[in-house]
Specification:
By secondary structure, the chain is an alpha+beta fold. The strands form 4 sheets. A 5-stranded antiparallel β-sheet has the order 4-5-6-7-8, covered by helices on one side.
Length: about 450
């Protein structure tokens, strides 16, 4: 094994097995994000009730609502500016990787897992780079400095245990192993070497790490989700049991069954009584308690305590802007981490691309990233007034106004400029006959 020291060739399965608890916890978190919470809720109910099958289980997915709300860094694609490489070439490489879509997904997983890794690869069929996000449930990392891993092991679980494989990476080595840790042949790489000379992975952290690669945090969100799920199931059980009054009668034997209905007369012995007991479940109090937990959880995670408030009336854009102050501070911290990640991603991209297409990216090339400003939910009149003010101050040109109004239709300045020229020429042509008549 040219790419691996001898002591690293036998411990992959041991390392992967030792981290099973962390991986299971991450898998649980991701299942909550993707609406697979029912089994966990059923187990919690079974711990307290003898007949859990009588409960109707459903959930309101707070995990995804909070994670998606917080993950605003890539809500709008950033603008990248390259030096040392042609702008069109750089844009094409990132477009081929579908970078903006992958990073948007990764930013949401980051809120759930607190640490993720991006892997840059190569598509031999298209001759272009690829980008994938890996979550902690399939990763093991060896490092002394969390920001600079020394070894990364990726687990690819199969339908059966014997179908599981491992990819073991170091800066100089790469091995593909079976479920027992035995090396599998890799076509074109008999020496088990890493052709890139660097790990083709980029760690991305929820915040600046201290001495641990896997950042803690977020347990309170999932505990609150469990509490709300159990409370909702209990609430619906109470609704089912108390939605109708309970018939009762006195003065008859315990085993006697009365036949009653709107077309029947109930015959009771002298002194007997009959009636319906009104339901008295504290439905409003239970709902209030559930809403309290949801609102406090949202406020704790900086997404605004009213994100789960169903009673609020429509707000103006200015009011919504004021309510997002906490989110803006969260976004500033996220952008700081994303800038570091983007710089490292470009370095890894350069190593991978130049290995397969030598000389594509100069060694001194760099990338600058301009993250889109947070968009306020303004009315059309407010948005137009803002655009007019920015144009009058010289901050925006008509090109910026058109790009902001329709970012999908005009993703670059050239296309927006051409469209504005076309519209002005068209307007001038339509106005010309009127001037002649005058």
């Amino acid at each position: 094994m040219l790419g691996f020291p001898r002591h690293l060739t036998t411990d992959v399965v041991r390392i992967a097995a030792a981290s099973r608890a962390r991986k299971n916890d991450t898998a649980r978190r991701l299942s909550y994000y993707w609406d697979r919470q029912q089994d966990a809720t059923y187990r919690l109910i079974a711990q307290r009730f003898s007949k859990p099958e009588q409960f109707r289980i459903f959930s309101v997915n707070m995990v995804r609502a909070v994670a998606d709300k917080r993950a605003s860094t890539y809500r709008m694609p950033p603008r990248r500016t390259f030096t040392g490489i042609d702008q069109a070439t750089g844009d094409a490489l990132y477009k081929a990787m579908n970078a903006d879509a992958v990073l948007k997904k990764a930013s949401r997983y980051l809120e759930v897992c607190k640490t993720v890794a991006l892997q840059v690869g190569w598509n031999e069929a298209t001759g272009t780079p690829t980008l994938n996000v890996l979550t902690p449930n399939v990763l093991d990392v060896v490092c002394t400095n969390p920001e600079h891993p020394e070894r990364i092991i990726v687990t690819y679980p199969g339908e059966r245990a014997e179908d599981t494989t491992f990819a073991d990476w170091t800066p100089n080595g790469f091995r593909l192993l079976n479920h027992r840790g035995a090396a599998k042949p890799v076509p074109g790489n008999p020496g088990a070497t890493n052709p890139y000379g660097v790990l083709p992975f980029v760690p991305w952290f929820d915040r600046l790490p201290d001495d641990s690669f896997w950042l803690p945090g977020g347990d309170d969100l999932f505990a609150a989700q469990d509490a709300v799920n159990v409370a909702l199931a209990s609430l619906w059980r109470a609704v089912e049991l108390h939605s109708h009054g309970q018939a009762w009668a006195s003065g008859i034997s315990a085993n006697e069954v009365l036949q009653f209905g709107p077309d029947r007369a109930v015959a009771l012995p002298q002194g007997g009584q009959f009636g319906f007991a009104a339901p008295n479940a504290p439905i409003a109090s239970i709902l209030s308690a559930i809403e309290f937990v949801m609102r406090q959880t949202a406020a704790t995670h900086g997404v605004g305590s009213d994100v789960f408030d169903l009673s609020k009336v429509a707000e103006s854009g200015s009011a919504k802007h004021a309510g997002r102050l906490d989110l803006k501070e969260v976004r500033q911290d996220q952008i700081a981490q994303a800038r570091t990640m983007e710089a490292r991603l470009f370095e890894v991209l350069r190593a991978v691309v130049n290995t397969h297409r030598p000389g594509t990216i100069a060694e001194d090339a760099t990338v600058g990233v301009d993250f889109a400003e947070q968009q306020d939910q303004l009315s059309e009149a407010e948005a137009l007034e803002n655009a007019r003010t920015k144009s009058e101050l010289g901050v925006w040109s008509p090109v910026d106004v058109l790009m902001n109004t329709n970012p999908d239709g005009f993703p670059d300045r050239e296309s927006a400029f051409r469209e504005l020229q076309r519209r002005r020429n068209e307007a001038a042509e339509l106005a010309a006959p009127q001037r002649e008549v005058a």
